[in-house]
Amino acid sequence: MKIVIAPDSFKESLTALEVAQSIEGGFRRIFPDAQYIKVPMADGGEGSVQSLIDATKGELLEVEVTAPLGNKVTGFLGISGDKQTAFIEMAAASGLHLVPFEQRNPLKTTSFGTGELIKKALDLGVKKILLGIGGSATNDGGVGMLQALGASFKNAAGEEIGFGGEQLQQICQISLENLEPRLQSVEFEVACDVNNPLCGERGASAVFGPQKGATPEMMQTLDNALAHFADVALAQQGIAIANHAGTGAAGGMGGGLLLLPNVQLKAGVQIIIEATRLAEHIQDADLVITGEGRMDAQSIAGKTPVGVAKMAKQFDVQVIAIVGCLREDYNVVYQHGIDAVFPIIRQLNSLEETLKQGRENLESSAENVARLIKLKM
């Protein structure tokens, strides 16, 4: 039996490779002689860089960057084996994992460090930048990133606005005059993990704000601030970012990136599927196992498990998803190629303890899934 294991990471608990290893560990207890092909996946968030480095025989480079709260941390980016393409994941500089639980506040967090990673890529002389924008701690519309690249956002007093999503409502003037000129000669692909618009009930603040620490009051403030940013960008730069699919990704980073030249927003999981040659691994498989930290209705909007499932269905291969937890609206995934879903949490604990138990819970659940499959054989 050939089993392809192609999961995303379990955010703040396990990397995609660790998830794949844990699933294999559980299955091997029941099917020790099966052939296991591990293909760590991503959709633009954490793990995207490593997946692409592995696919192109590239290397990882460390860079000091500004974290979401303004402190300095060591971030990273990848470069392809032929040195022509840089791989960046926003989470490496502006990720949620860089902000302690008690300090999460998207009114204050900045994407400035992501801009610093882009500048480093330009310094490397690449011809193409592939930027994954999942897993962010920010809701600043990518304004911090743009400031790091030379764009200017001034308030009514003619002063540069500060860091954080709440600052966007102070924007009176946008200038791209001093934007990094090397961006003109680089192809820029943005791997979005969702297709949400910038604002509104499906926008960045309403859908993703709570996981970044936003209260209902903060969500309204942030949504209004992003809408104001979009209005000024349209009026002064002629760039429409409010309703474009994907502009709500990463706290509006998808929208802010449209102020740069040569930028294309794409489904992140498709980029990773192509780079990892997933189709070649799946075409003769007996079973595909995928997964993510939390499965819900948003999973059909560009997330890894559904992307993997759609690929598997091209070859009539059954797909099982093993996930950290479920929301009650998760069952829509059954209409998009996933045949069965199994959550791994075995007992009620604090979030911190549950995240620490990810490997143990995952192996146990994988074993139980394998036992179920064996009953049918």
What's the CATH architecture of the largest domain?
Alpha-Beta Complex
Individual helix count:
13
Average pLDDT level: 92
What helical percentage do the residues reach?
25-40%
| Helix vs. strand class | alpha/beta
Report the biggest beta sheet as strand number plus sense, adding barrel if it closes. 6 strands, mixed
Beta strand %:
15-25%
Keywords: Kinase, Transferase
InterPro entries: Glyc_kinase_flavodox-like_fold (IPR018193), Glycerate_kinase (IPR004381), Glycerate_kinase_RE-like (IPR018197), Glycerate_kinase_sf (IPR036129)
Organism: Actinobacillus ureae ATCC 25976
Family: Belongs to the glycerate kinase type-1 family.
What attributes characterize this protein structure?
377 residues, alpha/beta, Rossmann fold, Glycerate kinase, domain 2, 2 domains, 18% strand
Explain the overall architecture:
This protein is of the alpha/beta class. The protein folds into 2 domains: 2-40 and 286-376, Rossmann fold, CATH 3.40.50.10350; 48-269, Glycerate kinase, domain 2. Helices cover 34% and strands 18% of the residues. It contains 13 helices and 15 strands. It has helices at residues 16-28, 48-56, 91-94, 112-123, 143-148, 204-208, 216-237, 249-257, 268-275, 278-282, 304-313, 351-356, 358-375; strands spanning 2-5, 35-38, 59-66, 72-79, 85-89, 128-132, 152-154, 173-175, 187-192, 263-267, 287-290, 294-295, 319-323, 325-326, 340-343. Strands 3-4-5-6-9-10 form a 6-stranded mixed sheet, with helices on both faces. Strands 2-1-11-13-15 form a 5-stranded parallel sheet, with helices on both faces. Strands 7-8 form a two-stranded antiparallel sheet. The longest helix is centred in the middle third of the chain and has 22 residues, at 216-237. Belongs to the glycerate kinase type-1 family. InterPro entries: Glyc_kinase_flavodox-like_fold (IPR018193), Glycerate_kinase (IPR004381), Glycerate_kinase_RE-like (IPR018197), Glycerate_kinase_sf (IPR036129). It comes from Actinobacillus ureae ATCC 25976. Keywords: Kinase, Transferase.
